[in-house]
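Students often ask why we bother encoding 3D structure as a string. The short answer is that it lets us treat folding as translation between two languages. Here is a chain of 119 residues written in the first language.
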Amino acid sequence: MKGRISNKLGEIQINPEVIAKYAGLTAVECFGIVGMAGISVKDGLVKLLKRESLTHGINLEMKDNNHITLDFHVIVSYGVSISAVADNLIENVKYKVEEFTGMTVDRINIFVEGVRVID
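And here it is in the second language, the structure alphabet:
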């Protein structure tokens, strides 16, 4: 089963929504990330998601062997190096999610959906 870890005392099951929320909170703490992006299917507009809606900007796929793939739709700060911000986000999220869950993060894809000027 997906998201299950067994040990000698029993079984732990982690809801994928919990992992996505944790990953989102980690991501928005990264330098250069303004926040998660929500894309309206109807009109194609990109909007900055509020903190309580972070998981709408994240797609999580969990394989049967507890290996995770994460897709982040983000808005970055104007004037930052996108590659440096992406590398930092990938490194932080991979480390913290693996530490939090005990599962393996195989892949993190980042989709930059917008840029914002920050005061």
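Translate back mentally: The helical segments are 16-28, 82-101. Keep this in mind for the problem set.
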